[in-house]
Specification:
Number of strands: 12
Structural class: alpha/beta
Shape: globular
Number of helices: 10
Strand content: 15-25%
Order of helices and strands: EHEHEHEHEEHEEEHEEHEHHH
Distance between the termini: 33 Å
Radius of gyration: 18 Å
Largest sheet: 6 strands, parallel
Length: 280
């Protein structure tokens, strides 16, 4: 199996390369400058032969997206469409990575794939348009909605908390009214390859860690494992005053993924423990 990975040198892309190696599959990481998904000519010439494509290329800086709108839209929306149309023309199965931020967070219970969308931020809107363009392209395209990703090779919430601990901070301030399912990217990478293996029909599939927690609860779990005793103050999202609004409850129902693969995702606690074991 030969897997082409757009955005292959990012956090998730790097983990996909390792997950492919563990399966003895060939991974082909593609990134700037050899592949620019916003440029149809670059995709036409830079997309080699393969058995499937996973698109991890994205503008992921949620707050920066509010002011860098043109770039964000070119990558997350139009770029996703360019790649999807190229895959459809070649008959290549595609997995497009989206986000839980396509929802407004007001449902109050885990979101299923068919729930109405309503992004609160420009980032969320750009990813939703990416979903729409991918599905409009036809072909064997699956949109995967993950959430709250953390991994070893990129910026993440857990890295920010650990940095503060390493700096000797004795107290932290963390949002307590936003709930999700923090997902470890090596676990997500394995799940994506499992989807390629089972060949699901085109559509949308939620893939996220089992369980749920607020960012305050996640920070507390990190501190408990690394340096117990650090005080963590609870703040509201309104007090943090982020440029981009976030959904307050964006937990995803992963029943469809479980039914398709027969392989439930690990819990967020298992992801946290695996991360900490790796960084040690």
């Amino acid at each position: 199996m030969r897997i082409l990975i757009a955005g292959g040198r990012g956090m998730l892309g790097s983990d996909l390369v390792e997950a492919c190696a563990a399966r003895k599959w060939e991974a082909v990481p593609l990134d700037l400058p050899e592949l620019d998904i916003t440029n149809p000519a670059s995709v036409e010439s830079g997309l080699p032969a393969g058995d499937a494509v996973i698109n991890c290329a994205a503008f992921t800086r949620v707050d920066d997206a509010e002011k860098e709108r043109d770039l964000c839209w070119r990558i997350n929306a139009d770029g996703a469409g360019v790649l999807a149309r190229a895959c459809a023309a070649r008959g290549l199965p595609l997995i497009q990575l989206s986000t839980d931020y396509v929802f407004n967070g007001r449902k109050g219970s885990p979101y299923v794939e068919s729930d109405p969308v309503g992004p609160l931020s420009y980032y969320g809107a750009s990813k939703l348009e990416g979903e729409n363009q991918v599905q409009a392209a036809g072909g064997q395209a699956v949109v995967v909605r993950p959430q709250s990703l953390f991994g070893l090779k990129g910026r993440s919430f857990i890295r920010a908390i650990l940095n503060q601990i390493e700096q000797g901070k004795t107290s932290l301030r963390v949002v307590s009214d936003q709930v999700s399912s923090p997902t470890y990217t090596p676990h997500l990478a394995k799940a994506l390859l499992r989807l390629i293996e089972v060949k699901p029909p085109a559509g949308i599939i939620n893939v996220a860690a089992r369980g749920q927690c607020s960012w305050w609860e996640f920070a507390s779990a990190i501190v408990q494992r690394v340096k117990p005793g650090i005080e963590i103050a609870k703040l509201s999202a309104a007090e943090m005053n982020f440029p981009a609004p976030r959904p307050s409850f964006s937990v995803l129902d992963t029943s469809r993924f479980n039914a398709l693969t027969g392989t439930p995702m690990p819990t967020w606690e298992e992801g946290l423990d695996a991360y900490l074991a790796s960084v040690k």
